[in-house]
């Protein structure tokens, strides 16, 4: 080829290859996986057919079964097949050929069999099944490339270079050799590189990853590789703990969100392999991620680690119980979490661990509020503030000051409530943590709304909503939108109020609703909505209320942040 091109300067040759030819004058044009349908949940035929992967699947399915069509009933299943196969053309064609005797819903659970079944007889043997295609590629790799290829299969949801070096290197492959070997796997299309704001990110397409996992299992080194993977991401959680309570909070939330699938896998492996003590250390400060991101129930799986290690040392056990109790009360589980937080406090006191005692008092205070014991809750939260300030935990003190304001607020003592929230806000601005900032801003906004200072309430709600978006805390965004809706309703701007309430409802429908002390009183909320609706014609109200739902279905709903933690402005979400 090189001789031919060199001898014919005006010659252009189009070559398809699994890897670059590496000759002078070569210009690469990567062929990426086919585009995927927008959603697998609310998929519709038009959306599926407008995606290149859905179009290819449908075209090949019709070749196998002329009566096949994408309908409202099977669109979700077809979209799920496209997603499961990562838009890989050969995999889509192999799966579509099975439609002659399997409907899409049945095919989903049998994709492995579909990919291993033979296809067109006029194709080369290596293209008749995914197994044959991947065997052919795997056999062409060097031993070092095969080793890294197998090890990279433990990553879920992609990985960055530093993670590949930590997990992929061992005695037979040094960390310094990973970069070049990874580059070769990218060149040969066995690993895909994606550009990102934080630098390149790598992943295997799912059919390729499943094949590599099989090879890893056959190699006998799977346990060691998974152990390094778990260790790397538990260390990441531990590192994130400090960042999650300071000015870089949004960045760390974004980083953990990007690695969420890997973190899940690491926690699952560590739990199954009796490493609950390591999980307790990694999660002690980073548990706030589960709160901020709204993955509350997932964070409560700390209880699984407890159950797996009944002989766990007392302090580690207390830390896991505290985390499970804190996240449990966040979703309104007050009865079962009270004994857990009390037990953790006792252990922390016996160990002389003041920071733990302060945290247990704080969570205990929130649980007591939920159980209808405001005096006890207030006293516990005040003890938490005092202890937190003694040990230098300004993040904990700032949060508890904001939550403490709820008790005098509920009793109509707005001046005292404001005093707590203003102290909390001052401390929050000092440390720069967005979550404690929006807790205290929300408290001040609620107080200003109760006093009729709508301008101060609006500014505080808007700032709190923006900060909430930066750490992905959508529940607080929804409550801020409801506060702004109340302001609009009192100003008799009923259409704006309806849009705001509709936007809040859209957010709350898709997430776990956190038991939040300054959440709008349900009875007062319904009264405000009824009054505003009574002043507006029904069609106009319904149209305004439904607008955010429509925008969300079209894909223009709230996006909490990009991977760098940059917020979008809630004022752009159908509320202006």
Structure in a nutshell:
This protein is an all-alpha fold.
Structural commentary:
By secondary structure, this protein is mainly α. Among the domains are: about 45-125; about 445-575, no CATH class. The protein contains 32 helices and two strands. It has helices at about 1-5, 45-50, 50-65, 75-85, 90-95, 105-110, 110-115, 130-140, 145-150, 160-170, 175-185, 205-220, 220-245, 250-260, 260-270, 275-285, 290-295, 295-300, 300-310, 315-330, 335-350, 355-370, 375-390, 395-405, 405-410, 415-430, 435-450, 455-470, 475-490, 495-510, 520-535, 540-555; strands at about 190-195, 200-205. It has a two-stranded antiparallel ribbon with strand order 1-2. Strand 1 and strand 2 form a beta hairpin. Helix 13 crosses helix 15 and helix 23 runs antiparallel to helix 24. The protein starts with a helix and ends in a 23-residue tail after the last helix. Residues about 120-125 and about 550-575 have low confidence and may be disordered.
Shape descriptor reads: globular
Number of helices: 32
What oligomeric state do the depicted chains represent? single chain
Largest sheet: 2 strands, antiparallel
Distance between the termini: 62 Å
Share of residues in strands = under 5%
Q: Class by helix and strand content? A: mainly alpha
SS elements, strand count? 2
Work out the radius of gyration.
28 Å
Relative helix content: 55-70%
Q: What is the strand arrangement across the widest sheet?
A: 1-2
Q: Regions with pLDDT < 50 over 5+ consecutive residues?
A: 119-123, 552-576
Mean pLDDT: 87
């Amino acid at each position: 080829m090189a001789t031919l091109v060199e001898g014919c300067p005006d010659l252009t040759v189009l070559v398809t290859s699994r890897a670059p030819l590496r000759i002078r004058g070569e210009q690469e044009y990567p062929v990426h996986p086919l585009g995927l349908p927008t959603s697998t949940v609310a998929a519709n035929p038009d959306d599926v057919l407008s995606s290149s992967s859905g179009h290819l699947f449908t075209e090949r399915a019709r070749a196998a079964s002329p009566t096949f069509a994408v309908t409202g009933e099977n669109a979700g299943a077809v979209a799920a097949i496209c997603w499961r196969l990562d838009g890989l053309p050969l995999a889509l064609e192999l799966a579509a050929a099975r439609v002659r005797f399997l409907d899409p819903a049945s095919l989903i659970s049998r994709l492995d069999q579909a990919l291993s079944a033979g296809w067109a007889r006029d194709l080369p043997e290596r293209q008749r099944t995914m197994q044959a295609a991947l065997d052919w590629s795997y056999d062409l790799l060097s031993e070092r490339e095969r080793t890294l290829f197998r090890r990279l299969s433990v990553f879920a949801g992609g990985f960055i270079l530093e993670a590949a070096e930590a997990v992929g290197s061992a005695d037979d492959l040094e960390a310094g050799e990973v970069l070049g070997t990874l580059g070769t796997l990218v060149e040969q299309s066995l690993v895909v590189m994606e550009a990102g704001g934080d630098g390149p990110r790598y992943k295997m397409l799912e059919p390729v990853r499943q094949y590599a996992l099989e090879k890893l299992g056959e190699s006998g080194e799977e346990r060691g590789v998974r152990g390094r993977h778990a260790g790397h991401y538990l260390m990441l959680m531990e590192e994130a703990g400090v960042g999650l309570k300071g000015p870089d909070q949004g960045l760390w939330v974004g980083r953990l969100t990007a690695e969420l699938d890997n973190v899940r896998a690491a926690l699952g492996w560590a739990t199954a392999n009796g490493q609950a003590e390591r999980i307790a250390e990694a999660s002690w400060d980073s548990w706030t991620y589960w709160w901020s991101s709204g993955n509350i129930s997932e964070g409560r799986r700390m209880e699984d680690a407890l159950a797996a290690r009944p002989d766990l040392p007392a302090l580690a056990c207390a830390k896991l119980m505290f985390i499970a109790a804190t996240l449990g009360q966040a979703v309104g589980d007050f009865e079962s979490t009270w004994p857990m937080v009390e037990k953790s406090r006792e252990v922390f006191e016996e160990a002389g661990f003041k920071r733990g005692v302060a945290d247990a008092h704080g969570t205990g205070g929130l649980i007591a509020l939920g159980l209808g014991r405001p005096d006890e809750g207030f006293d516990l939260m005040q003890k938490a503030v005092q202890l937190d300030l003694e040990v230098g935990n300004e993040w904990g003190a700032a949060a508890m000051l904001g939550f403490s304001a709820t008790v005098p607020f509920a009793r109509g003592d707005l001046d005292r409530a404001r005093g707590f929230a203003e102290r909390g806000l001052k401390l929050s601005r000092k440390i720069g943590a967005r979550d404690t900032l929006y807790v205290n801003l929300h408290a001040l906004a609620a107080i200003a709304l109760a006093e009729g200072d709508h301008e101060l309430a609006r500014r505080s709600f808007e700032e709190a909503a923006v900060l909430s978006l930066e750490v992905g805390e959508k529940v607080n965004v929804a409550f801020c939108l409801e506060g702004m809706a109340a302001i609009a309703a009192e100003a008799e701007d009923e259409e704006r109020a309806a849009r705001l309430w509709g936007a809040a409802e859209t957010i709350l429908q898709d997430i776990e609703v956190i038991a939040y002390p300054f959440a709008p009183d349900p009875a007062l909320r319904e009264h405000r909505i009824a009054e505003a609706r009574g002043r507006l014609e029904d069609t106009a109200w319904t149209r305004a209320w439904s607008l955010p739902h429509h925008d969300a279905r079209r894909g223009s709903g709230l996006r909490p942040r990009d991977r760098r933690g940059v917020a979008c402005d809630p004022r752009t979400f159908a509320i202006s």
